[in-house]
Design brief:
The protein is of the alpha+beta class. It contains five helices and three strands. Helices cover 57% and strands 16% of the residues.
Length: 91
Protein backbone atom coordinates (compact mmCIF):
# COMPACT_ATOMS: atom_id res chain seq x y z
CA UNK A 1 0.00 0.00 0.00
CA UNK A 2 1.29 3.43 -0.85
CA UNK A 3 0.21 7.03 -0.62
CA UNK A 4 -0.19 9.50 -3.49
CA UNK A 5 -1.13 13.14 -3.24
CA UNK A 6 -3.78 14.77 -5.37
CA UNK A 7 -1.11 16.63 -7.34
CA UNK A 8 0.70 13.35 -8.14
CA UNK A 9 -2.63 11.76 -9.12
CA UNK A 10 -3.36 14.66 -11.45
CA UNK A 11 0.01 14.46 -13.19
CA UNK A 12 0.48 10.66 -13.26
CA UNK A 13 -3.04 9.25 -13.41
CA UNK A 14 -2.35 6.34 -15.78
CA UNK A 15 0.81 5.30 -13.90
CA UNK A 16 -1.05 5.30 -10.60
CA UNK A 17 -3.94 3.33 -12.11
CA UNK A 18 -1.46 0.70 -13.33
CA UNK A 19 0.14 0.56 -9.87
CA UNK A 20 -3.29 0.01 -8.31
CA UNK A 21 -3.40 -3.38 -10.05
CA UNK A 22 -0.69 -4.54 -7.61
CA UNK A 23 -1.55 -2.63 -4.44
CA UNK A 24 -4.09 -0.24 -2.96
CA UNK A 25 -3.16 3.42 -3.17
CA UNK A 26 -4.37 5.92 -0.61
CA UNK A 27 -5.02 9.33 -2.14
CA UNK A 28 -4.28 12.28 0.14
CA UNK A 29 -5.16 15.96 0.05
CA UNK A 30 -3.10 18.25 2.25
CA UNK A 31 -1.56 15.18 3.87
CA UNK A 32 -4.89 13.66 4.96
CA UNK A 33 -6.40 10.54 3.40
CA UNK A 34 -9.46 11.22 1.22
CA UNK A 35 -9.85 8.11 -0.94
CA UNK A 36 -8.52 4.64 -1.63
CA UNK A 37 -7.76 3.57 -5.17
CA UNK A 38 -8.43 -0.17 -5.39
CA UNK A 39 -8.14 -2.21 -8.59
CA UNK A 40 -11.35 -3.84 -9.79
CA UNK A 41 -12.00 -6.24 -12.66
CA UNK A 42 -15.09 -6.46 -14.84
CA UNK A 43 -16.03 -9.68 -13.04
CA UNK A 44 -15.88 -7.91 -9.66
CA UNK A 45 -17.89 -4.88 -10.78
CA UNK A 46 -21.36 -6.43 -10.38
CA UNK A 47 -20.54 -7.64 -6.87
CA UNK A 48 -19.14 -4.24 -5.93
CA UNK A 49 -22.23 -2.41 -7.19
CA UNK A 50 -24.59 -4.70 -5.27
CA UNK A 51 -22.54 -4.64 -2.07
CA UNK A 52 -22.42 -0.84 -2.09
CA UNK A 53 -26.00 -0.13 -3.15
CA UNK A 54 -27.82 1.62 -0.26
CA UNK A 55 -31.22 0.26 -1.36
CA UNK A 56 -29.89 -3.31 -1.38
CA UNK A 57 -28.29 -2.87 2.05
CA UNK A 58 -31.58 -1.48 3.40
CA UNK A 59 -33.53 -4.48 2.04
CA UNK A 60 -31.08 -6.90 3.66
CA UNK A 61 -31.32 -5.08 7.00
CA UNK A 62 -35.13 -5.07 6.82
CA UNK A 63 -35.22 -8.78 5.98
CA UNK A 64 -32.86 -9.58 8.86
CA UNK A 65 -34.93 -7.49 11.29
CA UNK A 66 -38.08 -9.34 10.18
CA UNK A 67 -36.31 -12.66 10.57
CA UNK A 68 -35.17 -11.88 14.13
CA UNK A 69 -38.72 -10.85 15.12
CA UNK A 70 -40.72 -13.56 13.37
CA UNK A 71 -38.18 -16.33 12.95
CA UNK A 72 -37.51 -18.39 9.86
CA UNK A 73 -39.46 -21.03 7.97
CA UNK A 74 -38.52 -24.49 6.84
CA UNK A 75 -37.23 -25.14 3.33
CA UNK A 76 -40.39 -27.11 2.48
CA UNK A 77 -42.59 -24.22 3.58
CA UNK A 78 -40.55 -21.83 1.48
CA UNK A 79 -40.85 -24.04 -1.60
CA UNK A 80 -44.63 -24.24 -1.15
CA UNK A 81 -44.80 -20.46 -0.72
CA UNK A 82 -42.80 -19.90 -3.92
CA UNK A 83 -44.86 -22.42 -5.88
CA UNK A 84 -48.05 -20.73 -4.74
CA UNK A 85 -46.69 -17.33 -5.77
CA UNK A 86 -45.71 -18.64 -9.23
CA UNK A 87 -48.95 -20.53 -9.64
CA UNK A 88 -47.18 -23.79 -10.47
CA UNK A 89 -47.88 -27.20 -9.08
CA UNK A 90 -45.40 -29.80 -7.99
CA UNK A 91 -45.24 -32.76 -10.39
Amino acid sequence: MRFAGVKELKHSTMDILRESENEDIIITAYGKPVAVLHHITEEDLADYLIENDPAFKRRIEEAYAEYTVEGGITADAMIKKLEKRRGTKKV
